[in-house]
UniProtKB/TrEMBL annotation, chain A:
<keyword id="KW-0496">Mitochondrion</keyword>
<dbReference type="GO" id="GO:0006412">
    <property type="term" value="P:translation"/>
</dbReference>
<comment type="similarity">
    <text>Belongs to the universal ribosomal protein uS9 family.</text>
</comment>
<dbReference type="InterPro" id="IPR000754">
    <property type="entry name" value="Ribosomal_uS9"/>
</dbReference>
<dbReference type="GO" id="GO:0005763">
    <property type="term" value="C:mitochondrial small ribosomal subunit"/>
</dbReference>
<dbReference type="Pfam" id="PF00380">
    <property type="entry name" value="Ribosomal_S9"/>
</dbReference>
<keyword id="KW-0689">Ribosomal protein</keyword>
<feature type="region of interest" description="Disordered">
    <location>
        <begin position="351"/>
        <end position="381"/>
    </location>
</feature>
<dbReference type="InterPro" id="IPR020574">
    <property type="entry name" value="Ribosomal_uS9_CS"/>
</dbReference>
From TrEMBL, chain B:
<dbReference type="InterPro" id="IPR008092">
    <property type="entry name" value="Ribosomal_mS29_met"/>
</dbReference>
<dbReference type="Pfam" id="PF10236">
    <property type="entry name" value="DAP3"/>
</dbReference>
<protein>
    <recommendedName>
        <fullName>Small ribosomal subunit protein mS29</fullName>
    </recommendedName>
</protein>
<dbReference type="InterPro" id="IPR019368">
    <property type="entry name" value="Ribosomal_mS29"/>
</dbReference>
<keyword id="KW-0809">Transit peptide</keyword>
<dbReference type="GO" id="GO:0006915">
    <property type="term" value="P:apoptotic process"/>
</dbReference>
<keyword id="KW-0689">Ribosomal protein</keyword>
<comment type="similarity">
    <text>Belongs to the mitochondrion-specific ribosomal protein mS29 family.</text>
</comment>
<keyword id="KW-0496">Mitochondrion</keyword>
Length: 381, 395
């Protein structure tokens, strides 16, 4: 848009010159700025400009500012500036700028500029305006260079195989790459790696050729290359807090645990007595939870593990309503059961969702609406 | 070679002989199996249908009530759900439980020349108090007693559609509808006694109507059912007559007074007078006379009662002890009484109830027939009879 405005001024300038010359004025006219400009032309066409481009110097400056800021922050908190890690930064920012916002991404943060600003391609050509990369004119230079490299690796593997065959040591199922629990990078992740847009067709082709490479024997020589494009899956059972199994004076094993849901908190003491008795806040479970649904919720952890008549439950619960109290108790019972079970059963419980605290909380009411989601009645006039 | 062929020919005959032998033996075994199969059916049932002959050995077992008895004795006495169950299963099976057996044993041993003993069944909601009461009443009926059964005293103190000032005493109120329905049921239950018992006093109802001395009790009851206006007074008269007469040596009957929900008599009521002030239960004719009957100043009978939180007014849900439900006044009037606690099912009783439902094909769900299912049912119902019954209702 700025180019257009320049053109406009240039036109204006040109017109003025002729007019002045026609008017036969002696002194040369000064290149003057047009006083009145259409405001519509001033507004930049933001969509056409694309995402904001940061220059390399700008990023560099940001990195320097970040490092200096890190040292300042360490001094404020009274800690050692040399060994100030990212975790310490997060902790300090959370302390200095406490925020009650629910959305974690909306809270104040201080991170290395590489994590904040998206990766951008540096200028791909030199002063003589000739591109650096030989594949620049394909349009997708990183993608094609990657495919070229991939093919080179395959040729390498085949050469290795020929060498082994000549020595007589070739076998069909030799030395494949052990993948473990990993998956291929998704298209988005590959785009982030190459800093370039690729189409689905290109991505599928890439995965196809990688699979082909993996199927060749003796591909372990390119293991490092392949693993760059595999993403390790998270370990299954994340660290679980298992409460300890204690013994009381009669030698009966018991364990206690807590649980919460919405605004209810509960504690449960699970005793290994052999009778299926259950008391909630000192009362019978039938009296406290007259609704069948709540009692079913309490029954679920023990029914799932098949330990219905084995344990004695002493529960206390407070806060919330009847359903959330039942949910809190269920979580507490499952946590207390953990110490009596084997690791495989613990895994089953985790996958059944018994150990996950329910994150649903009441949504706040917003201004301009009647409730959290309900809007005021819309009147046409 | 020939021997070989001979043995070949002989072998099928030998086998044939053996098969005959085994088939007879097999039939014997089958017969034995059938016998042993017919036995498990009666593990939770007992053949002793007479309450008088039941003992601790039958605790947990079901005995069948004859249909005739049900029709006569319990036109209004059984709990609603149990009545539906009787209709569904086409038989009335009641479980023999310890509190009822205890009450029956006391009834057997009591001395009827002394003032009437008062029995009170109490327990948590749904633990089987009304059923124990019905069991004891059945015993009294089989022994030939006169049964005065008030199915639910709470019905007399709430939801009254018609309230009339009493003709006898101006401060009291009559409830004609309840009185007439009760008299009708009383007539059905005690048909044989109505002609035998004669009244000892003259009752004047209106200027033209009166019942003379010496007339049978049946006439009094008919008077009450036909003349609705004076039915509450008739009830009072019936109660008085029975009370006075059953102690005498010449009268050969005993009186069993069975009241369900006795805490209603001393609680509050929801009936309101015209000026919107609450009516005290004492001001109701029926309640006043029933209270007189419940006093143990008469001989030759027994008073069996239960507490009930379900229909009671202004009592917390968790209250089930006599002190809480009867209140001070009630407790003082009922004192002394024999308290009988009715607990939830024991393991044996639960087992037999479960087997009964399975045998009646009431538990349709395949999971309910497994061990796991049984444990779930125990957990969810906490062995409470009503909850177990409701749970099985939709399984």
């Amino acid at each position: 848009m700025s180019g257009y405005s320049l053109c406009f001024t240039a036109v204006v300038v040109f017109k003025r010159k002729t007019w002045l010359s026609l008017g036969q004025l002696a002194f040369p006219c000064v290149l003057c700025r047009s006083i009145s400009q259409n405001s519509a032309l001033c507004r930049k066409n933001l969509a056409a400009a694309g995402p904001e481009k940061f220059t390399a110097e700008f990023i560099q400056k940001q990195i320097e500012e970040f490092n200096i800021g890190k040292r300042h922050l360490a001094n404020i908190m009274g800690e050692d500036p040399e060994n100030f890690s990212q975790e310490d930064i997060d902790r300090s920012i959370a302390y200095l700028f406490p925020s009650g916002l629910f959305e974690k991404k909306a809270r104040p943060l201080m991170k290395h500029p590489d994590e904040i600003f998206p990766m951008q391609r540096a200028v791909q050509w030199g002063k003589d305006r000739r591109p650096f990369h030989f594949l620049f004119y394909t349009g997708k230079q990183s993608y094609y260079s990657l495919m070229h490299e991939l093919y080179g690796k395959m040729l390498n593997i085949e050469k290795h195989q020929d060498r082994l065959r000549s020595k007589g040591l070739f076998s069909k199922d030799g030395h494949k790459i052990s993948l473990g629990m990993s998956r291929w990078l998704t298209k988005e992740e590959l785009e982030a790696l190459l800093v370039e847009n690729i189409s689905t067709h290109d991505y599928n082709r890439f995965i196809q050729i990688m699979e082909r490479l993996l199927s060749m024997p003796y591909c372990n020589i390119e293991e490092e290359f392949v693993l760059r494009f595999r993403h390790l899956l998270q370990t299954q059972s994340r660290h679980q807090m298992v409460s300890a199994l204690q013994k009381d004076e009669n030698g009966v094993a018991f364990s206690s645990a807590e649980g919460c849901r919405k605004t209810s908190h509960s504690t449960v003491v699970l005793r290994d007595c052999g009778s299926g008795r259950l008391s909630v806040n000192g009362q019978d479970s039938l009296l406290y939870f007259p609704v069948l649904q709540d009692r079913e919720q309490l029954m679920f952890p023990m029914q799932f593990t098949g330990t219905l008549g084995r344990f004695d439950l002493e529960c206390t619960v407070s806060g919330g309503g009847r359903s959330s109290q039942a949910g809190a108790l269920r979580l507490a019972i499952s946590r207390a059961l953990l110490s009596f079970l084997s690791p495989s059963e613990r895994e089953m419980m985790r996958q059944a969702g018994l150990l996950t605290p329910d994150p649903r909380v009441r949504e706040r009411k917003k201004p301009g609406q009647e409730g959290a989601r309900r809007k005021f009645t819309w009147k046409k006039r | 070679m020939a021997l070989h062929r001979l043995s070949l020919r002989l072998r099928p005959t030998v086998a044939h002989v053996r098969s005959i032998h085994t088939s007879r033996y097999g039939r014997q075994q089958e017969a034995a199996a059938v016998d042993s199969e017919s036995e498990p059916i009666s593990v939770f049932r007992t053949q002793e249908n007479d309450p008088a002959s039941q003992s601790e050995k039958q605790i947990g077992q079901f005995y069948t009530l004859p249909a005739e008895h049900i029709r006569l004795l319990f036109p209004h006495g059984l709990p609603n759900r149990y009545q539906q169950q009787v209709k569904t299963f086409n038989e009335a099976c009641m479980m023999v439980r310890q509190p009822a057996l205890e009450a029956i044993s006391y009834l057997k041993k009591a001395d009827y020349s002394k003032p009437a003993l008062r029995y009170l069944f109490y327990g948590v909601k749904g633990s089987g108090k009304t059923m124990s009461l019905c069991h004891s009443v059945h015993f009294c009926y089989t022994q030939g007693w006169v049964v005065l059964h008030i199915p639910d005293a709470h019905l007399w103190v709430k939801n009254c559609k018609e309230l009339m000032p009493s003709s006898y005493k101006s401060s009291r109120f009559d409830q004609p509808l309840q009185a007439t329905s009760w008299l009708r049921n009383f007539k059905i239950t005690n048909e044989p006694f109505l002609s035998k018992i004669k009244i000892k006093q003259r009752y004047v109802w209106t200027k033209r109507e009166s019942t003379e001395e010496g007339r049978p009790l049946g006439e009094l009851v008919d008077q009450g059912t036909s003349r609705v206006k004076s039915s509450s007074d008739v009830v009072a008269a019936v109660m008085k007559e029975l009370r006075l007469q059953c102690g005498h040596p010449e009268s050969n009957f005993r009186l069993a007074v069975a009241v369900d929900g006795v805490n209603a008599l001393w609680g509050k009521s929801t009936i309101k007078k015209e000026d919107k002030s609450a009516v005290d239960p004492e001001e109701l004719t029926l309640v006043y006379n029933l209270r007189k009957l419940l006093k143990n100043d008469w001989i030759g009978g027994a008073i069996i009662t239960t507490l009930s939180q379900t229909g009671s007014l202004y009592t917390p849900k968790s209250a089930y002890l006599p002190q809480e439900l009867l209140g001070e006044r009630g407790f003082d009037s009922m004192d002394p009484f024999i308290p009988l606690s009715v607990p939830n099912y024991s393991e044996k009783e639960f087992e037999s109830c479960y087997l009964y439902y399975t045998e009646r094909n009431w538990l349709q769900h395949p999971q309910s027939r497994t061990e796991e299912g049984k444990k779930e049912l125990i957990f969810l119902s906490n062995r409470n009879p009503t909850m177990f019954d409701r749970l099985c209702g939709f399984l």
